[in-house]
Write a structure and sequence with these properties.
mainly alpha
């Protein structure tokens, strides 16, 4: 099991990684890249060996306990790159 200290830098790095395929012009949207874990983060696919919770937990607020809201908040964070 891998433990990672969650920092703003790590969250920005994950965003950068998830945006790489679309930034490079390989796909239009980050979720279109078949080999990206971003698809697990926004629940388009579920693979047992990817656990997005370390990052998604950072997108929950006290009044937004739901995992789906965290996924949506993360998706907005990634897609708001302009």
């Amino acid at each position: 099991m891998c433990f990672m200290a969650v920092t703003k830098l790590n969250i920005s790095l994950i965003k950068y990684i998830h945006l790489n395929p679309s930034s490079a012009g390989l796909v239009v949207k980050p979720e279109d890249w078949e080999f990206s874990s971003y698809r697990e983060y926004i629940r388009l696919r579920k693979l047992d060996f990817i656990n997005p919770m370390i990052i998604l937990d950072q997108f929950r607020t006290e009044d937004e306990k739901g995992l789906e809201k965290a996924r949506l908040n993360y998706q907005r964070f990634v897609e708001d790159y302009e």
